[in-house]
Amino acid sequence: MPDGVNLSRRGLFRGRLSASAPEVQLPWSIPWADFVADCTRCGDCLTACPEQILVKGDGGFPTVNFQLGECTFCTDCVSACTQPLFRPTTEVAWHYVAHIEVGCLAHEQVFCQRCQDSCEPRAIRFSPQLGRVPTPDIDTDLCNGCGACVADCPVSSIKISTPYGEKTD
Question: Is residue 150 within 8 Å of residue 138, measured between CB atoms?
Fold first, then answer.
């Protein structure tokens, strides 16, 4: 690359500076600033995803929509990409986990355990409480952030993000 090239200007001319980082990036993707700099927005990763959970996000860049289903960590999005946008699939896919938000039916004393039923790694457990409906707890050591619980929640009170207090790259 020639000296004196301002990458931010180059990004401006390509229309790439307006894309804000999504809540959840694709599995194995590189840090957002680097991803945006090299992603051509071709859509190959979107069509390669067998679960069809990858969608065009801000600026046309791919993002994950767990309302459509879960990530099975199949690596098809990585294989479909011709750009250097992904880390080796031998590494952990990402550091996202599920969080139970306000509005969970169990916290409103309504019996519901759909998230536990959809959680293959068994990271969501319901703790019995005397005289109350069991409430969910997430074992963040077991949670792989696949998002299966998100689409299954009838009140959309589960979100996938970094563990509370942590920042992404």
Answer: no
Residue 92: count of CB within 10 angstroms of its CB: 12
The residue type found at 106 is A
pLDDT tens for each residue of 107-135: 999 999 999 999 999 999 998 989 999 99
Give me the helices (H) in the chain, please.
7-13, 32-38, 44-48, 76-80, 114-118, 148-152
H or E element in which residue 54 lies: strand 54-56
Is 137 in a helix, a strand, or coil?
strand
Question: Is the pTM for the entire model greater than 0.85?
Answer: no
Q: Is 155 exposed, middle or buried (0-12, 13-18, 19+ CB in 10 A)?
A: middle
Largest CA distance in the chain: 70
Q: Which residues does 16 contact at the CB level (< 8 Å), separation at least 6?
A: 36, 37, 59
